[in-house]
Amino acid sequence: MTLRLSEEQTEALRRRAEREGRSMQQVVLSAVDEYLARRADDEEVHRLGVEAVRRWKPVLDRLAE
Q: Which of 47, 41, 43, 44 has the alpha carbon at shortest distance from 55?
């Protein structure tokens, strides 16, 4: 895989890696891991919400009357 960054992104990534005492690759891998975990969490919250609506719909419909 090749990751193409703008010069500004590359420089910002280089500065961030230096401040954290990590390589640019480590910073990028960490960012990818965080992104994937956040998306997985979002999907799980959505799934639980859909399930809750399905489960409690009859009760919610009665309360709305």
A: 47
Q: Look at residues 39, 40, 17, 19 and name the one whose alpha carbon lies nearest to residue 29.
A: 17
Sign of the alpha-carbon torsion through 44, 49, 50, 55: positive
Distance (Å, rounded) from C-alpha 31 to C-alpha 53? 33
Concatenate the DSSP letters of all residues of 15-35 into one string. Answer: HHHHHHTS-HHHHHHHHHHHH
Q: How far is residue 15's CA from residue 5's CA, in Å, rounded to a whole number?
A: 14
Where are the domains positioned within the chain? 25-65
Tens of pLDDT along 5-53? 999 999 999 999 999 999 999 999 999 999 999 888 888 888 898 899 8
